[in-house]
Amino acid sequence: LAKTTQPISMDSYEGQEVNITCSHNNIATNDYITWYQQFPSQGPRFIIQGYKTKVTNEVASLFIPADRKSSTLSLPRVSLSDTAVYYCLVGASSNTGKLIFGQGTTLQVKP
Amino acid sequence: NAGVTQTPKFRVLKTGQSMTLLCAQDMNHEYMYWYRQDPGMGLRLIHYSVGEGTTAKGEVPDGYNVSRLKKQNFLLGLESAAPSQTSVYFCASSRQDFYGYTFGSGTRLTVV
Fold first, then answer.
1. Mean pLDDT comparison of A27-36, A39-48, B18-27, highest-scoring range
2. pLDDT for the residue numbered B1
3. Looking at beta carbons, which residues of chain A come within 8 Å of B35?
């Protein structure tokens, strides 16, 4: 199972674009990359999932280079309400029960 | 849609007491999971189920039991609560594994 490494914490200011990078050097061919967001006292919320290149939805963009050994979650023009913990997960359907949420990246958005 | 509903939201137990946490989902998802979250530890998988009538152990299963008698419900039981089981418990479900887990709002359990 691919191990992921992401920064423990990041600070930003309102209105800025935030990029959180996740390293997954031993990603397998059939693995997907998924990002979750967790606010205090709430369960994690699915943000975005991708396999390669770029994926965009109404919340974020996910950039995955050709070698897929890393991925970057991009949050455009963050606001105070984007302060949360962001988790990067790598795996596939065959990894049932083996997916583990690490400590994630705590993003603090300042006014 | 309610999504994933967990009951109760808060509970205080004495050491040695038992209790059951209920998770209900209305999305017809096949997969369901129980996680615990401790400060600085991220989420750790306790047990999971890939369909009605099935259960399997996760990363930290000791001291817990589960049952999935109905597709929409996943129960987590503590037979003899210990202070080390003080945690926030999250239930999640998904259409297939590793695709868009939907989490409940959590149960905060304190064992004294």
1. B18-27
2. 61
3. 101
